[in-house]
C-alpha cells in the first residue's frame, strides 16, 4: 500500500502540491490523470524519491520512504517511462537482467526469470533475447521496458506515460497486456497518463488532478456515472459512459417503480389496476417485495371466474435480471426474450425495477440523438 500524508511540494515560492492525501491499495492499478501542470508526474516521481517532497510523508506498507535507503528503494520499485529507458548498447536479455544482477539473484534464477518475462510480454525469447533496442519497434521496446520493471519481483511498478508515443493499435494491445498482467500478478501499479480513454481501459481507480489537488478519486465506472463537478465532466467528455457500455448497468436504465401487487388480490381487482395504470401485465410480490410471479391481461380474460386469487393462477418463477448486469448482456437477453419486459431484482429476488423493450429502445435512442447520431 502507498500512502501520501499531507504531502507538499514547493519550488521556491511556488507550491505545486499542497496538503496532498491519497491511499493506493495494494494490488490495484491506479491512474493519475490531469492536464499539463496538474502534478501527476511529480507525484509519481515522489514515490521513488526522484523528486523530494517539501513536507509530509509518503509511506510504503506503513514505512516512511525517507527512512529507507534511496538506492534500495528504487531497486525495489519497477519504473517504466515513455522513452523506455533501455540501454542501447545492451541486448534485450541484458537490459532485463540489470536489476536482478545488482540485487544478487542467482544466474539460474535470472535466466529463468528473463525467459518467463519475455513470454509474459509477448516476445519470443529465442527471437528477441539477443537483439538490441535499435532493432526493435517502439511497441517491442516498450514491452521490454515493462518486462524489466517486473524483473526484480517488485511489488510496486511506476509507469510514466509509457504508451503515449505509440501508434493507436500498438497502444491498445499494450494496454490490454498490461491489464491482464496486473490481474495475474496483482502488482501495485501507479500509471500516469493524460488520456482518459487509456485510464478507463486499464484502471481499478482513477485519480483526477487539477493544480496538485484531487478533484475525484474513484473507479472508472463511478467517475463516468457520477462526475464530481464541471471540471471532471469536461475532462472526461459528455456522455463518455456510452463509450463503455459494459459500465452501464440494469439499474441505470430500469423503471424504478414498476406496478406490482400482492398475490392475495383477485383477478377482478388485478384487471382494474391494469386499466387504471394503463399496463397489460402485473408483477406479483410478497410482503417483503420479493418477486413471486406475473400475470397478464390476456391470462385474466381467459379465466371466467374473476374471483380467483392471483397467486393461484399467476405464472410463477419469472425470468429476471439483477441490477448489476451490463447493458451488452441485457441486450443479448432481450434478443432471446419472448416477453417485452424483464423485472430487475437483487440477489434475494427483491423487486427493484423493470426494464421494458420500449424503455430500453427509448434510452438508447435518446443517447444516439444526443451524440449526434442523426447527422
Automatic annotation (TrEMBL):
Q: What class of enzyme is it?
A: translocase
What InterPro entries does this protein map onto? AAA+_ATPase, ABC_transporter-like_ATP-bd, ABC_transporter-like_CS, CBS_dom, CBS_dom_sf, Gly-betaine_transp_ATP-bd, P-loop_NTPase
Q: Which reaction does it catalyse?
A: a quaternary ammonium(out) + ATP + H2O = a quaternary ammonium(in) + ADP + phosphate + H(+)
Q: Where in the cell is it found?
A: Cell inner membrane
Q: Could you tell me the EC number(s) of this protein? A: 7.6.2.9
Q: Where is the CBS domain?
A: 254-313, 314-371
User: Where is it chiefly localized?
Assistant: membrane
Q: List the record's Gene Ontology CC terms alphabetically.
A: plasma membrane
For this UniProt record, give its keywords in alphabetical order, as a comma-separated list.
ATP-binding, CBS domain, Cell inner membrane, Cell membrane, Membrane, Nucleotide-binding, Repeat, Transport
Residue span, ABC transporter domain? 2-236
Report the GO molecular function annotations. Answer: ABC-type quaternary ammonium compound transporting activity; ATP binding; ATP hydrolysis activity
Q: Which GO terms describe its biological process?
A: amino acid transport; glycine betaine transport
For whether the record's keyword set contains ATP-binding, the answer is yes
Q: What does the similarity note say?
A: Belongs to the ABC transporter superfamily.
| PANTHER family attached to this UniProt entry | OSMOPROTECTANT IMPORT ATP-BINDING PROTEIN OSMV
Complexes and interactors: The complex is probably composed of two ATP-binding proteins, two transmembrane proteins and a solute-binding protein.
The protein's name: Quaternary amine transport ATP-binding protein
Say which species the protein is native to: Clostridium isatidis
Amino acid at each position: 500500500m502507498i500512502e501520501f500524508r499531507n504531502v507538499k511540494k514547493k519550488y521556491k515560492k511556488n507550491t505545486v502540491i499542497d496538503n496532498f492525501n491519497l491511499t493506493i491499495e495494494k494490488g490495484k492499478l491506479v491512474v493519475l490523470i490531469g492536464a499539463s501542470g496538474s502534478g501527476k508526474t511529480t507525484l509519481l516521481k515522489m514515490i521513488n524519491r526522484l523528486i523530494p517532497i517539501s513536507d509530509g510523508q509518503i509511506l510504503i506498507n506503513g514505512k516512511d520512504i525517507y527512512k529507507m535507503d534511496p538506492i534500495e528503494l528504487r531497486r525495489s520499485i519497477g519504473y517504466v517511462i515513455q522513452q523506455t529507458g533501455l540501454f542501447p548498447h545492451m541486448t534485450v536479455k541484458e537490459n532485463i537482467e540489470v536489476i536482478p544482477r545488482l540485487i544478487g539473484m542467482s544466474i539460474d534464477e535470472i535466466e529463468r526469470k528473463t525467459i518467463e518475462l519475455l513470454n509474459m510480454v509477448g516476445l519470443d525469447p529465442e527471437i528477441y533475447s539477443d537483439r538490441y533496442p535499435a532493432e526493435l519497434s517502439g511497441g517491442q521496446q516498450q514491452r521490454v521496458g515493462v518486462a524489466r520493471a517486473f524483473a526484480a519481483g517488485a511489488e510496486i511498478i511506476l509507469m510514466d506515460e509509457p504508451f503515449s508515443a505509440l501508434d493507436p493499435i500498438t497502444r491498445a494491445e499494450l494496454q490490454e497486456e498490461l491489464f491482464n498482467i496486473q490481474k495475474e500478478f496483482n502488482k501495485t501499479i501507479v500509471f500516469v497518463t493524460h488520456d482518459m480513454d487509456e485510464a478507463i481501459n486499464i484502471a481499478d481507480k482513477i485519480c483526477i488532478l487539477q493544480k496538485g489537488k484531487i478533484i475525484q478519486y474513484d473507479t472508472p465506472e463511478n467517475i463516468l456515472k457520477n462526475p464530481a463537478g464541471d471540471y471532471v465532466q469536461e475532462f472526461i467528455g459528455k456522455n463518455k459512459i456510452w463509450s463503455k457500455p459494459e459500465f452501464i448497468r440494469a439499474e441505470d436504465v430500469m423503471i424504478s417503480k414498476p406496478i406490482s401487487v400482492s398475490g392475495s388480490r383477485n383477478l377482478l381487482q388485478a384487471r382494474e389496476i391494469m386499466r387504471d395504470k394503463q399496463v397489460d401485465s402485473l408483477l406479483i410480490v410478497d410482503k417483503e417485495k420479493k418477486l413471486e410471479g406475473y400475470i397478464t391481461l390476456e391470462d385474466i380474460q381467459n379465466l371466467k371466474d374473476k374471483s380467483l386469487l392471483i397467486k393461484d393462477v399467476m405464472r410463477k418463477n419469472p425470468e429476471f435480471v439483477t441490477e448489476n448486469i451490463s447493458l451488452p448482456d441485457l441486450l443479448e437477453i432481450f434478443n432471446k426474450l419472448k416477453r417485452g419486459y424483464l423485472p430487475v431484482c437483487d440477489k434475494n429476488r427483491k423487486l427493484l425495477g423493470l426494464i421494458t423493450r420500449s424503455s430500453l429502445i427509448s434510452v438508447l435512442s435518446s443517447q444516439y440523438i444526443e451524440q449526434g447520431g442523426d447527422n
